[in-house]
Design a protein that fits this description.
Layout lengths: L10 E7 L2 H17 L4 E7 L2 H4 L5 H4 L7 H8 L5 E5 L11 E6 L7 E4 L14 E4 L2 H10 L4 E4 L4 H9 L5 E5 H6 L8 E3 L13 E6 L3 H7 L5 H17 L7 E8 L2 E9 L6 E9 L3 H14 L2 H11 L1
Length: 316
């Protein structure tokens, strides 16, 4: 990596995926930086990632969430970009050496959303209806509650997924509400799946900004974008994933909420078919979010998560 410099930062390049949602997210960060630093020149560096290219392969089979960030980190390493903007649910829980997560911004709606041309709620779907999702976590929770539905893999960026629905390939699809709302597509949401019914992925709805660990000047620029409440919640959620070795091949949900000085963490681990689900709901000190996440993971293990995870690994 290039050596750090003590000169004031005059220009920054933001590495981003090329999807419309990723570009919106990067542009959002660009505008916030420009508002904070009127003399700062901010540019976008759109890149194609393996995760965007492997559209017909289920994500857990293609190599996991890291497929969406590796090319962006390469651009950071070789100096083409100064920071990268990610959806936090796509960021692996272990950061590669030399990189740091400098900011987690305020969260959008973390819930999952049902999109359908005919049905207003998932409970209205008839037996045999086809529901599309890219997430094992969503699929397992839907299968638990509605075993008569057919759940099929749905890959591609947000616009591609909506187009497949509109062509009649699915009766309904389940997407993150945050992406739809950010792109002005909130009207497509027929109903929101409450957290109790569809526990979100760790970090869902939040944006993360990554930079090189040897660029403290960049981290300092990003400090005003940090949202303390969202950061505490996401840190707790990611701690659950980290403790359980969470990745795309594990149907794992984690969601944290601040309640005063207390942090509540709900988490689950499920079998792929949704027939076995271990759940945890615990509270702890908001000043130590990782500890609360670790406690939730330990509770999941006590309730059968270890056996579920072992079966998932054996079935790969």
């Amino acid at each position: 990596m290039n050596s750090p410099t003590s000169r004031p930062v005059e220009r920054v390049a933001i590495a981003t995926r090329r999807s419309r949602l990723a570009l919106w997210q990067a542009e959002h960060v660009k505008q916030r930086l420009e508002a904070l630093y009127p003399r700062l020149s901010v540019e976008l560096l759109p890149l194609s990632t393996r995760g965007d290219e492997l559209l017909e392969v289920r994500l857990d089979k293609a190599g996991g969430k890291g497929l969406f960030v590796k090319e962006l980190e390469t651009a950071l390493a070789d100096g083409r970009a100064d920071l990268a903007v990610h959806s936090m649910k796509d960021v692996p829980v272990e950061m590669p050496p030399g990189f740091t997560l400098a900011a987690i911004t305020a969260r959008e709606d973390p819930r999952d959303a049902l999109v359908s041309p005919r049905y207003g709620a998932i409970s209205e779907l008839p037996a045999g209806a086809i529901v599309g999702t890219s997430s094992l976590r969503r699929a397992a929770q839907i299968a638990e509650r509605f075993p008569a539905l057919q759940i099929r893999t749905l890959r591609g960026n947000l616009d591609t997924r909506l187009a497949k629905l509109d062509r009649g390939e699915y009766d309904a699809i389940v997407l993150a509400a945050a992406g739809l709302k950010r792109l002005g597509l909130g009207a497509r949401i027929r109903s929101l799946l409450e957290v109790a019914d569809s526990l979100p992925a760790a970090g869902q709805g939040a944006l993360g900004i990554e930079c090189r660990a040897d660029r403290p000047q960049i981290a300092a620029l990003l400090e005003p974008l940090v949202d303390a409440k969202t950061s505490a919640c996401v840190r707790a959620e990611r701690a659950v994933n980290r403790a359980l070795g969470g990745n795309c091949s594990v149907p794992l949900g984690a969601f944290a909420e601040l309640e005063g000085a207390r942090l509540r963490v709900r988490a689950l681990v499920a079998s792929a078919d949704g027939r076995r689900i271990a759940r945890a709901d615990c509270e702890g000190d908001a000043a130590d979010p990782e500890r609360v996440g670790d406690e939730a993971a330990a509770l999941l293990r006590e309730r059968g998560a270890a056996e579920i995870l072992a079966e998932l690994v054996a079935g790969e």
